[in-house]
Amino acid sequence: MKSYNSSENAYNPSEKLLALAAKLEPLKEKCIQVGSDYIRKVQTNVAAKNWSAVIVLVAVPTVGVCVGLKTVEYTVGGVVSFVQDLGGPSRGDLKQHLQSQLPDYWEITSIEIKEKQNTGTKVDPYIFQRFRAKARLKTDTFFEASKIDGLPAKKQNSVVFISAVERKGKEVELFGFSTSKLVAEKWQSEFRFDVNPTGNYGQPRHYFGARNIVRNSKEEEEFAAAIKKQVEEERATLLSAIKSGAWLSGDWTDPSGEFNPSGKNTQEMQIRFTSFDEGSGNLTGEVKFGSSVKRFEGALTDDKIQFTTVAVLDGRDPFGLGTEYTFAFDANNTMRGEWKHLTQLNIPLAGLLPNQGYVTRKGSASFRLQ
Predict the structure, then answer these.
(1) Quick one: 10 and 41 in the same domain?
(2) Would you place residue 76 in the very low, low, confident or very high pLDDT band (cuts 50, 70, 90)?
(3) Which of 77, 132, 310, 363 could be 254's S-S partner, Cβ–Cβ 3.0 to 4.6 Å?
(4) What number is the average pLDDT over the span 79-98?
(5) 158-209: pLDDT as tens digits
(6) Which of 147, 146, 143 is nearest to 164 (CA)?
């Protein structure tokens, strides 16, 4: 729990005020006695029809006594009340303390103290209070939402999609306890909530980063339309490259350097497509590393090309057939992806090892469409 310090309304009841209250109480009783004596004198003079004496007794002294009685009563009551009200932070202070416990987009609009008790001492007070408060949203709030169905997930990674939760002005009620302790003449207050629903109403839009889009909005429609257009243009570029039959230059990387005769991690790779069926997406082609040429078979699905080497057409084969390639459209008209190859370890009795001594080698590859 968070704590909040306040120097206002420190619990420091004045001994002089208490002494004054004690002195005024007997004065009040004396005034009551004086008033009673005046009333008896008035009754005696009324019975004797001594009206001049009645006027003197009633018109001046009695009025003065009544005023004095009220003055004493109010003074004593005010002093006692003032002394009693010094028990802990004020309601205004407590409201300010409670505000510090909430996210900055919630505002405490009211607080009501239901019960209040000093569970400490007059010297070392420990104020325990049960409260009921109201909080209001200062802005619209949102939750993070899922990506748009039907569009490549990779194309949507640059934005965060959000859904509206609540509008500005929404009010909720808070219930709980507060404890306040006097430390170095300042109140330190802590809170414990029975009910605090502020965490169930999302967060302001700016909490979701610089690029976010509200689902089911015009902004989402425009974004989806732009992505669809981009995908169509990329696919058209890819189909044009596939149908051209031209050699497309790229790079092939083996992190271990084991499969590259030169010992380098990266070497030049060239790809060309020799057949393509637009209906099924099936395709064939050739991949070339220096003087080594292999035939592959695969398919185009959505924005990905996948194929596997199946035959050696020319040159020596440095690491065998069965290498699987997966490419996806990247920036600047480039297809980028990875390759993996199942290789048996060249050691005695490798077939007795788990998986018959086979290990999967992996690396990256790319080629340019233009």
Answers:
(1) yes
(2) very low
(3) 363
(4) 67
(5) 899 999 999 999 999 999 999 999 888 888 889 999 988 888 899 999 999 8
(6) 143
What is the predicted pLDDT for the residue at 308?
Answer: 94
Supply the angle between the helices 15-47 and 63-84 in degrees, to the nearest 10.
Answer: 160
> Considering the entire predicted model, what is its pTM?
0.58
Identify whether the C-beta of residue 155 lies closer than 8 Å to the C-beta of residue 117.
Answer: no
- Say if 31 falls within a structural domain: yes
For 188, counting Cβ atoms within 10 Å of its Cβ (0-12 exposed, 13-18 middle, 19+ buried), the class is middle
Is residue 227 assigned to a domain?
no
Phi, psi dihedral angles at 355 (to 5 degrees): 60, 30
300-303: list long-range contacts, CB under 8 Å, 24+ apart.
300/238, 300/242, 300/276, 302/152, 303/152, 303/231, 303/234, 303/235, 303/328, 303/329
Predicted confidence band of residue 320 (pLDDT cuts 50, 70, 90): confident
Judge whether 288 lies within some domain: yes
Tokens in use for 246? 């031209």
168 three-state secondary structure: coil
Q: Which long-range contacts (CB under 8 A, 24 or more apart) does 237-246 make?
A: 237/333, 237/369, 237/370, 238/300, 238/305, 238/329, 238/335, 238/369, 239/276, 239/278, 240/369, 241/273, 241/369, 241/370, 242/273, 242/276, 242/283, 242/300, 243/273, 243/276, 245/272, 245/273, 245/274, 246/272
Chain-centre distance for alpha carbon 20:
55
Structural domains counted in the chain = 3
Q: Is 61 within a domain?
A: yes
Q: Which pLDDT does position 86 carry in this prediction?
A: 43
pLDDT in tens, 9-30: 444 444 444 455 555 556 656 6
Range of the domain at 167: 91-216
Integer Cα distance of 91 and 7 in angstroms: 14
